[in-house]
Amino acid sequence: MKVLVVGGVAGGMSAATRLRRLIDDAEIVVIERSGHVSFANCGLPYHVGGVIAERDTLLLQTPESLAARFDLDVRVRHEVVCIDTAGHKVEIRDLADGRVYRESYDALVLSPGARPVRPPIPGIERALTLRDIDDTDRMIAALSPGVTTATIIGGGFIGVELAENLVLRGLRVTIVEAAEQVLGPLDPEMVEPVQQRLREHGVQLLLGRTVTAIDADSVTLDDGSLVPAQVVVASIGVQPESGLARAAGLEVGVGGGIVVDEQMRTSAPDVYAVGDAVVKRDAADDSDVLVPLANTANRQGRLAADVIAGHRGADRPVRATAIVGVFGLIAATTGWNEKRLRRVGRPYRAIHTHPGAHAGYYPGATTMALKLLVDPHTDAILGAQGVGAAGVDKRIDVIATAMAGGLTACDLADLELAYAPQFGSAKDPVNMLGFVAENMQRGLVDTVQWWELADIVAAGATVIDVRTREEFAESPLPGALNIPVDELRERADELPAGRLVVSCAAGQRGNTAVRLLTQRGHEAVNLDGGYRTWSESPAARA
Fold first, then answer.
1. Is 200 helix (H, G, I), strand (E, B) or coil?
2. Distance between CA atoms of residues 74 and 38, nearest Å
3. CATH classification code of 447-541
4. Which of 327, 450, 335 is nearest to 381 (CA)?
5. Which of these, 52, 290, 407, 496, has the minimum number of CB atoms within 10 Å of its CB?
């Protein structure tokens, strides 16, 4: 058997090395357009910033090491320019000397990845991108002595990582983002701590703005203003590198992604495709999506090799689980966010909590913000987000695993999770989300969201803040009546008639107060996530 793999890194090299472990006598040829076939692309921003000091540590394997261990014929600086699916042949150009030659195949695996989006902005040719080692070398070369300003177009995960690392290099950094926030997968009240952290470290955020021109040492915005930019980085997103597949007549779908079945087969016989270039299936609604993540690319490469070798397997749907670090803060997400659920009109419940990363009595405890989105009819977990200085990765990973296993929101209450005071709490933050979900499912408590509060108050409801007098004085909730929860029974006659919205710091005391009030005949609801969630929301800044 002769297998050609087009493209290396996560998907292609996973396919090639897995196939060698399954079929020792197969002829396996890897064609890679760049000069490096196996590198840690997620580490590229950190080499730019000097966090990863040695460039060679990013090079996971070389053509020589892959030949020695796996007997792979790896050809870098070679490019497949044409696929003859009927004749099972490809045309290859040697980029060093321009020579064109052909190779036949019994199976062909396409792993071309995704290329950075480069919109038709005047001067876009000056903008740097960050996709591979060559891009990294160009970016570092551009950061010569005397360069002090950088503008990043786009505030996604890579843009935010680059902002941090360029600040570490001593530059004054601006992010220009067309949306009203950075990190689009997070909801507005969850992303605000990230934006605050960026600003605290000197990053200028120009949100809801676009770049209309890139000049010699600045960029021009849509309002005509200029932003200093000796270095410009285009981090607007990526799109599937599917031109080769399209030219070969392979079926493409949403966003130009290559269409594959559950065994990674394309529409052409014996041609497979994996990684960022292919269309995936969304776990929440079975829709077609593009999710460029290394974990998924690795899994698909392994699966394609299994199928070629005659083993069974099927691709899994995706939940777009992702994480980013921002100047010591962690932000992570899995599944759908509230913005998307509202946009498509899908019913949901939102749950906000603000637990400690570990037991509060153990030194060094920090608080995180967690958000869980739940189907109100089936109790299925639709998505989750977390932001904090520690412990966020663990909780989002647990929830993503629960989603993959089909556990419901209420099932989170019963998870047996590792506990010692320096690592968590006896009631882990994930368990606490489950407890809230149980209360809501059983009708023990009803909640309102930060974005609903103003309309509810305008309709005649009264906000009762049950924090202590000291807490309320330090950070009052506008228009609220302060009655501490411990005084609520004795001061019940002070409660006005009509609907009551109860608020506390994070929702826990509010839950206690709502239970007390509803059992005494009041119509009371809890402000989900309490003052902390509201204070991070656009409502608090209105």
1. helix
2. 10
3. 3.40.250.10
4. 335
5. 496
Cβ atoms of residues 152 and 163 within 8 Å:
yes
78 φ, ψ (degrees, to nearest 5): -125, 145
73-109 burial by CB neighbour count: b if 16+ within 10 A, else e?
bbbbebbbeebebeebbbebbeeeeeeeeebebebbb
* Segments in the chain below pLDDT 50: none
pLDDT at 123: 96
In b/e form, how buried is each residue of 24-49, taking b as 16+ CB within 10 angstroms? eebebbbbbbbebbbbbbeebbbbbb
Closest CA to 112 of 250, 311, 284: 250
Q: Would you give the DSSP letter of residue 348? A: -
Active site residue 504: yes
Alpha helix stretches (DSSP H) within 49-110: 63-70
pLDDT number for residue 542? 78
Q: Cβ of 426: how many Cβ atoms within 10 Å? A: 10
Q: Where are the beta strands (DSSP E) in 375-485?
A: 381-388, 447-448, 462-465, 481-482
Helices (H), 151-242: 157-168, 188-200
What whole-number distance in Å separates Cα of residue 52 and Cα of residue 60?
14
Which CATH superfamily groups domain 328-441?
Answer: FAD/NAD(P)-binding domain (3.50.50.60)
Q: Are 537 and 458 in contact (CB under 8 A)?
A: no
- Whether 301 and 10 have beta carbons less than 8 Å apart is answered as yes
**400 within 8 A of 319, measured Cβ to Cβ:** yes
Q: H/E element holding 512?
A: helix 508-519
Q: Is there a shared CATH topology between the 2-113+239-308 domain and the 328-441 domain?
A: yes
d(CA 460, CA 210) in angstroms, rounded, equals 41
> What is the distance between the alpha carbons of residues 534 and 529, in angstroms, rounded to a whole number?
7
- Would you identify the CATH topology of the domain 2-113+239-308? FAD/NAD(P)-binding domain (3.50.50)
pLDDT, mean over the chain: 96
CA–CA separation, 407 and 410 (whole Å): 8
Cβ(103)–Cβ(115) below 8 Å: no
What are the boundaries of each domain within the chain? 2-113+239-308, 124-236, 328-441, 447-541
Q: Can you identify the CATH homologous superfamily of domain 124-236?
A: FAD/NAD(P)-binding domain (3.50.50.60)
* Catalytic residue (one of 42, 82, 410, 504): 504
Summarised one tens digit per residue, pLDDT across range 397-440 is 999 999 999 999 999 999 999 999 999 999 999 999 999 999 99
**Between the CA of residue 337 and those of 178, 187, 334, 341, 383, what are the distances in Å?**
19, 6, 8, 7, 6
Q: What is the rounded distance in angstroms from the CA atom of residue 321 to the CA atom of residue 292?
A: 11
Is the separation of the CB atoms in 92 and 80 below 8 Å? Answer: yes
Give the C-alpha separation, 525 to 266, whole Å. Answer: 52
The Cα–Cα gap between 387 and 153 comes to: 24
